[in-house]
Design a protein that fits this description.
This protein is of the alpha/beta class and 322 residues long. 46% of the residues lie in helices and 15% in strands.
């Protein structure tokens, strides 16, 4: 495919998604960034904001194998990755693969399962393989985990540890719709016969072609250094004249942040039909890449300072030396 054909395909993806999902273009955009840059996504938002519906519809549009896993407190790692079962007819143990063996995994309410299950999921995300019995199985490509968590429920939940949150390329906060979009949702869903049909747009081969095209997007050395400066500003905030904000940062971001800032900025540039990255591309994805990696102290919580406040201050203070 040429770049123009790829751009046309991406526009078709949005068109097909709009048949089902209303007003969540930002979320769809970020999911596509994850897909085309080989990164996993964490979605956080209150119930009813079409997180599950969006992921399910995207899997149909991309013609990928899809599995939805509802995380519950009694879920076991074997329910996720699979296990060995005894076949009475043959007298041998056989492998029964779990739902993790799909291209797109929706880990619904991932914070409702205990640490063992979360660890099994995150290991699969990182290694792109799972071990059942004595055999290691490579997961199919592309492999994308889209996890959701509900910020409303706190009792009976197991928050993801900060070190494991780092495995997610982006953390997206899904907000309420505007009035016009919610009106459209109400009209659609109150119609009992509303059953839209979406058509596959991209094949696996075409997804990898788009990945290659994004990988060829150029980023200047000055912008590479700008990314590094942003990352180091979270680690040594007092050296970057951040004022009071510097006192609220307990730990800065990991090297995964700089890698993912680079990849996500390239994807944004490609979506904008450019073959080079602009500073605005980096700034556009900075919050989604950094917000779950910056660890604030208790003083920040007491003062009502959020990761968005910290990232905004860093983007204003760190200069771009072109």
């Amino acid at each position: 495919m040429t770049n123009a054909e790829m751009q046309s395909k991406i526009k078709q993806v949005y068109q097909e998604m709009n048949k089902v999902v209303v007003g969540q273009r930002y979320m769809i955009n970020r999911l596509l960034i994850g897909l085309f840059t080989n990164g996993h996504i964490l979605l956080e938002g209150v119930p009813g904001l079409a997180k599950t519906l969006t992921v399910n519809t995207l899997a149909q549009v991309l013609h990928l194998d899809f599995q939805r896993i509802q995380f519950t407190p009694d879920l076991l790692p074997s329910d996720l990755i699979g296990t060995m079962i005894y076949n009475q007819r043959t007298g041998e143990f056989e492998v029964k693969k779990g739902p993790i063996f799909a291209n797109m995994i929706l880990a619904d309410e991932v914070n409702r399962s205990p640490a063992k299950v979360q660890a099994a999921l995150l290991e699969a995300m990182q290694e792109k393989q799972v071990t059942i019995g004595e055999t290691t199985y490579t997961l199919d490509k592309p492999f994308l985990v889209l996890a959701t968590q509900n910020p409303v429920e706190q009792e009976g939940t197991y928050p993801l540890p900060e070190a494991q949150l780092d495995r997610f390329m982006l953390k997206i906060f899904v907000n309420y719709l505007d009035k016009e979009s919610e009106l459209e949702v109400m009209r659609r869903m109150s119609n009992m016969s509303f059953q839209p049909t979406v058509h596959p747009v991209l094949s696996k081969a075409e997804i990898f072609q788009i990945r290659d095209a994004i990988n060829r997007v150029t980023i200047s050395e000055s912008l590479e250094k700008y990314i590094i400066e942003l990352v180091f500003a979270t680690r040594k905030p007092k050296e970057y004249n951040l004022g009071d904000i510097a006192n609220y940062i307990q730990y800065g971001v990991s090297p995964r942040a700089s890698i993912n800032l680079n990849r996500a900025a390239k994807a944004i540039a490609f979506f904008e039909e450019r073959d080079f990255v602009l500073p605005e591309d980096i700034k556009e994805v900075a919050f989604d890449v950094l917000n779950h990696r910056i660890i604030l102290n208790y003083e920040a919580e007491a003062e009502g300072v959020t990761s968005r406040d910290v990232i905004d201050a860093i983007l204003k203070k760190v200069p771009i030396n072109i």
